[in-house]
Design a protein that fits this description.
Blueprint lengths: L1 H5 L6 H44 L6
Length: 62
């Protein structure tokens, strides 16, 4: 029981709500950024693969 008393009181419900909303916003923005990042990575993989195949076939692309 003593360790629980040392933690202090819990924050007010509005403070908890604001904290949870802030976490939700960070997760939403992160999700959108990761969506864009995955698309860029897929495009880069395709571009490098195409350039590599063209190089193997003898085309001088770079």
């Amino acid at each position: 029981m003593l360790p629980l008393l040392q933690l202090g009181s819990l924050p007010s419900p509005p403070a908890i709500l604001v904290g949870l909303l802030a976490i939700a916003v960070v997760l939403l923005v992160g999700r959108l950024v990761m969506k864009v990042a995955w698309r860029l990575i897929i495009i880069a993989i395709i571009a490098v693969a195409v350039l590599w195949i063209l190089g193997m076939l003898g085309f001088q692309v770079i």
